[in-house]
Amino acid sequence: MDKNIKELLKQLKIELLVAWMIVASCFVAGETGLIPNGEYAVDERMSFILGMACIALTLVGVPLALKLFTLNTTRGLRRCNFDEALASYHLWSCIRMAMLLVCVCFNAVVYYLTLDNRGLLCALISFVVTFYCWPTKDKIDKHLESCNNTID
To answer: Is 95 helix (H, G, I), strand (E, B) or coil?
Structure first.
């Protein structure tokens, strides 16, 4: 049982590090010109639309990612055995990270396309939230505790 938790913890940390590398590659692509810098900088209408899309995605996506994870790992685990609970925790951790990754990458791309600080600020906010997602044994144990209570 402890071995399964350690394996899950290792896998989640690797997945989070890969997500951070994807974020870094978005910024490298922007700095090297793979993302056309300032493509929409002169088009005020498109710049405004993309900026508002960044803000909306950040305002909706970040809290939604965190809330979906919390709802599905606390209420959903009560109906699972231990192995199903570990699989469910892993699945919802991946979904949460994917949602945050989409927010960060979209905002970074918009920043480079428009050269507007709204995209950069939203990317920074979304990226900082990913640090909250760093897995620890205590977090996994806390979420699996409700599963253990129903098995006993």
So the answer is: helix
Kindly state the DSSP code that residue 77 receives in the 8-state scheme: G
- Specify the amino acid at residue 9: L
Report the alpha-carbon distance of residue 37 to residue 92 in Å, rounded.
35
Phi-psi sector, 98: left (phi>0), alpha (psi -120 to 50), beta: alpha
Tokens of 45: 């209408």
3-class DSSP state for residue 81?
coil
Q: Tell me, what amino acid is at 25?
A: S
**DSSP letter (8 states) at residue 79:** G
Of 129 and 2, more confident:
129
Query: End-to-end CA distance of the chain, in Å?
Result: 15
> Per-residue confidence at 4, pLDDT binned at 50, 70, 90?
confident
- pLDDT of 76 reads 53
The two tokens of residue 74 are 């606390």
Class of residue 3 by CB neighbours under 10 A (exposed 0-12, middle 13-18, buried 19+): exposed
Report the C-alpha gap between 45 and 127 in whole angstroms: 27
The CA radius of gyration of the chain, in Å to the nearest whole number, is 18
The b-or-e profile of 116-139 (16+ CB within 10 A means b, else e) is bebbbbbbbbbbebbeebebeeeb
